[in-house]
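TICKET: design request
STATUS: open
ATTACHED STRUCTURE:
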């Protein structure tokens, strides 16, 4: 009863637009908001679910939904997340006390470190899964990062191909140039650069055994040496490369390892080399990644701001030559993936699909919240 009362007080204060109806475990109903859209009704399956949500809303909202203890009676998961993100105070509105929030943030700072000893385990958590899962929402080339929509009606396949062309153009690859792909995934980007950009000696590194096996199979099928791809941490890579590309990997590095990352890139990049880094970015001030994302999607990872990345680049001796903010391209990418794996009328249960819906909302524009970003960096050695 106390938990229900506290939740009601908080929701009454923060839900200013849209409509949220909350049904407790015994059927009592409360309605919050201005009666407008989005209109959502949720039901708690048990009283304990309310207490858990109040103690840690950032983590428990997703977990309770996944466990079937928070049920959506009207509207959709997309509507619920949009309503939550547009509340006054955003995703911290339910924090019960400043002291608890400070302790939780301190713990998350420790958990966000990603040294070599943890990096492979963290990557395996997300990528060493049955490849059929990724078949559900990725393009045929398994590009697991923001696509580039040259036209509003482009398909996911077309937009991912456009992304690869865009990367190749920014890298300014000349025939025979050596290329290092840090976080090569299933090999699609590096194989594209070899086939269509005339790249010469190549090396692709990943910490995922599943990705490595797939990349090597694909290389063999295209007449490329499968040993082009290796199970290797960027801190252990040696050699010098004319071009370095890293797409969708930097989110896994962790803020405490930014200096080590860019120092390694500076060491590996030729004197007249070019590096391109493609990463999810955060708007506003530096903050910690949502704990649900950290636990289920990117353990050890961090979504950075410009102010976090630029100083680390400068300290490494690299110079920033170009920054491009893709912004809503990522929202469109996630929407396309969600449509593929989550047909109308079905309810997602797997956490990856839940993440697609959540991230799709967080990258969509709001009248009170700037859009999240997908950022491109093009760095040259000084």
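STATUS: resolved
RESOLUTION: sequence designed for all positions
ATTACHED SEQUENCE:
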């Amino acid at each position: 009863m106390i938990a229900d009362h506290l939740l009601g007080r908080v929701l009454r204060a923060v839900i200013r637009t849209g409509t949220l109806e909350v049904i407790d475990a015994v059927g009592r109903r409360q309605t919050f908001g201005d009666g407008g859209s989005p209109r959502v009704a949720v039901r708690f399956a048990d009283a304990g679910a309310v207490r858990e949500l109040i103690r840690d809303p950032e983590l428990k909202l997703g977990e309770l939904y996944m466990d079937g203890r928070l049920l959506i009676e009207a509207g959709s998961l997309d509507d619920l997340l949009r309503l939550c993100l547009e509340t006054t105070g955003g995703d911290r509105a339910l924090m019960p006390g400043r002291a608890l929030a400070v302790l939780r943030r301190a713990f998350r700072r420790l958990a966000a470190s990603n040294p070599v000893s943890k990096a492979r385990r963290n990557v395996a958590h997300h990528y060493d899964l049955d490849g059929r899962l990724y078949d559900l929402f990725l393009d045929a080339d398994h590009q697991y990062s923001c696509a580039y929509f040259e036209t509003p009606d482009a398909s996911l396949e077309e937009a991912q191909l456009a992304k690869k062309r865009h990367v190749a153009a920014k890298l300014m690859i000349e025939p025979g140039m050596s290329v290092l792909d840090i976080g090569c995934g299933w090999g699609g980007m590096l194989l594209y650069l070899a086939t269509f950009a005339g790249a010469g000696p190549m090396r692709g590194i990943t910490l995922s055994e599943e990705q490595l096996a797939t990349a090597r199979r694909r290389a063999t099928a295209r007449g490329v040496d499968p040993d082009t791809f290796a199970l290797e941490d960027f801190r252990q890579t040696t050699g010098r490369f004319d071009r370095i590309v890293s797409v969708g990997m930097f989110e896994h590095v962790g803020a405490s390892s930014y200096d080590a990352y860019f120092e390694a890139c500076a060491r590996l990049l030729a004197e007249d080399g070019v590096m391109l880094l493609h990463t999810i970015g955060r708007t506003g001030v530096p903050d910690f990644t949502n704990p649900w994302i950290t636990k289920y999607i990117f353990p050890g990872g961090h979504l950075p701001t410009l102010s976090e990345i630029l100083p680390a680049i400068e300290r490494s001796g690299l110079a920033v030559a170009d920054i491009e903010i893709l912004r809503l391209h990522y929202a469109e990418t996630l929407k396309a993936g969600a449509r593929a794996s989550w047909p109308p009328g079905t309810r997602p249960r797997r956490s990856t699909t839940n993440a697609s819906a959540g991230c799709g909302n967080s990258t969509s524009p709001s009248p009170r919240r700037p859009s999240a970003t997908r950022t491109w960096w093009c760095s040259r050695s000084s």
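CLOSING REMARK: Residues 90-99, 349-376 have pLDDT under 50 and may be disordered. Residues 2-96 form a domain with the Nonspecific Lipid-transfer Protein; Chain A fold (CATH 3.30.1050).
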